[in-house]
Design a protein that fits this description.
The protein is an alpha/beta fold. The protein contains nine helices and seven strands; from the N terminus they run ααβαβαββαβααβααβ. A seven-stranded mixed sheet has the order 3-2-1-4-5-7-6, sandwiched between helices. Its EC number is 2.1.1.-.
Length: about 240
């Protein structure tokens, strides 16, 4: 079964697609204080919840959403249509690393998709190419809240701690102007939604696809509950280009 389809199914009940509550998503976007006519770029947009909410907060703004998954982009198209935002959101099925634009943006969003560029440093370098002078980036990234077990560190890679993550984000000419560290309740809501949606889908779709979805869910839940829960943190940073 297509892994992109599995991911799209898993995120159906949590389109924010990160351990961030709707209230804190709003808080982060409001802190951006986007101007009238703002241009927003969402790299790794998934179902488009971040860019769609930005469009709702600034009715004169426009956005581009970029994702490699056609399943996620289709979900974003449906959500934009349901919210009357289709004419202000342009969606692109392509790699975030290969996307190009002719005009700069006021805000570049990359929440939980830094892997598309190879890491946080590379993501900030990419954002710098898209944002206008003095513009903003809203980037979400994992960090180790406490030292992980060796097998968890091997599975996730060499994340720094929170201080190291902020330092890395700022190293290429950026200044952090706001941030949000996800709490355990936000993590649990995200993970229970992810695993629960896959579990329900697998029960409703018996056969090889359902069995694969169930196996993926169980593997993910095991690593979460007995591995990174309370160990892996997530920070959303609002940074200004300086």
């Amino acid at each position: 079964m297509d892994r992109q389809l599995l991911s799209a199914i898993a995120h159906r009940d949590h389109p924010i697609a990160a351990p961030v509550s709707a209230a804190n998503l709003d808080r982060l976007l409001r802190r951006a204080a986007l101007p009238e006519g703002a241009r927003v770029l969402d790299l790794g947009c998934g179902e488009g919840e971040w860019s769609l909410r930005a469009l709702e907060l600034v009715p004169s703004s426009v956005a581009d959403g970029v994702d490699i998954s056609p399943h996620a982009v289709s979900a974003a198209e449906r959500s934009a249509a349901a919210r009357g935002l289709s004419d202000r959101l342009s969606l692109h099925v392509t790699s975030a690393a290969e996307f190009s634009a002719t005009e700069p943006y006021d805000l570049v969003i990359c929440l939980g998709s830094t892997h598309a560029f190879g890491g946080l440093t590379e993501t900030m370098d990419a954002a710098a190419k898209f944002v206008r002078p003095g513009g903003l980036a809203l980037v979400g990234e994992g960090f180790w809240d406490r030292p992980p077990a060796p097998e968890i560190a091997e599975a996730f890679g060499a994340y720094p701690d929170l201080a190291g993550t902020v330092t890395t984000a700022e190293s290429g000419g950026w200044l952090t102007v706001y941030g949000h560290v996800s709490d355990l309740a936000e993590w649990d809501e995200y993970e229970w939604s992810w695993t629960g949606t896959l579990a329900r889908w697998s029960a409703d779709n018996p056969g090889p696809d359902g069995e694969q979805a169930l196996a993926v869910m169980r593997e993910h839940r095991e690593m979460w509950l007995n591995g990174y829960r309370g160990v892996l943190g997530f920070v959303s940073l609002l940074l200004r280009r300086v």
